[in-house]
């Protein structure tokens, strides 16, 4: 600690002491490592590289360190047999890495940024495996879900404070994210909240899955994780944060989710009426802002050069995909080009997870992704009737969330960005595993018909 203090100052020494203390506790109780990952990794995934570890994101270093500590120690434990979801996830991650390296070598496009893009899904899979290995009992899942939901409070408050212009908040966000989005023409015309992420889309993606989980818990009457008033309050706070991000496709995805969960729980009126009331209040408060956001979709970027404009509309996205991305994919349709984009592409944002996957690994990687999502959806569908309420809520959230993500990811690659994928892999880990360790139905639920009957 003295050496750290001499090189990094008092703050570095304190962080080192906390890390050492956390290491000792984690070695004694592995579940604490799982809790720490659930609470910290999603909300720090958007922080800039080098904070506080040079060249790395905090979430990446934390995940890899936790994997080193946990996975080797649990390799011989009982109930560690891989299920279909484990194999499907490993297949997607493995294909992403192998095809990415192959494409980079064949097309001579191997760069450090490309390596960072290739490592992304590997850390997601490690996060999934560590959470599965450390959080195993119903009680532990309750605590993990509580931490996951509560960690949205600082994110939501930061986004709201950023949007309303609390002094010093915007400068703080720019410092911790080091994002270039604040220099873009589109943000200067209509500022949107980003929270601790590099842009508004990752913020909205992070909030999306947590809001889906909260809706599922409210619809299913789950009071194990939190009292109903607390879950409802968190949902309201996250709704405000989502509205100030002005991300319209996520709002549309939540509408799909609400209908699906209401039908699955057979509580259409009980779910949709309160949510409609919240939507009405949000429309009254943020209606002008959202209308300006819709109107801005037709505005061209007057500062653009070389015929490239800021993609304000779906129509422009189709133009970019047709003129630039589809020709590049046709030339590398089977195994992709690699993690970096071909030099022929001028607009360096795919704007879609499907084009991202096709460019990185062709139809082979796209197929692996589709298989993983299908297996996860199937396992979630099967577990939506379990008597363990927290796991049941997670299963319903994944069933509805995966369906909503199909159209949502047409206009942004949420699954390869920050925010959403960390939450998705954690929820998948909490849903997966043996179903034998479930709690008995509560007395007020024993007469309730099965959700699938």
Write the layout of secondary structure elements.
Layout: H1 2-28, H2 30-44, H3 58-70, H4 84-106, H5 112-134, H6 138-150, H7 152-164, H8 169-177, H9 185-189, H10 200-220, H11 228-245, H12 248-265, H13 268-295, H14 314-331, H15 353-383, H16 389-408, H17 420-431
What does this protein look like?
By secondary structure, the protein is an all-alpha fold. Helices cover 68% and strands 0% of the residues. The chain is built from 17 helices and no strands. The chain has helices at 2-28, 30-44, 58-70, 84-106, 112-134, 138-150, 152-164, 169-177, 185-189, 200-220, 228-245, 248-265, 268-295, 314-331, 353-383, 389-408, 420-431. The longest helix has 31 residues, at 353-383. The protein is globular, with a radius of gyration of 22 Å.
Short description:
Helix content is 68%, strand content 0%. By secondary structure, the chain is an all-alpha fold.
Which key features would you list for this structure?
453 residues, globular, mainly alpha, disordered C terminus, 17 helices
Largest sheet: none
Average of pLDDT: 82
Multimerization status = single chain
Give the total of beta strands.
0
Low-confidence stretches: 299-311, 436-453
Tell me the fraction of residues in β-strands, as a range.
under 5%
Whole-number tally of structural domains? 1
Helical residues, percent: 55-70%
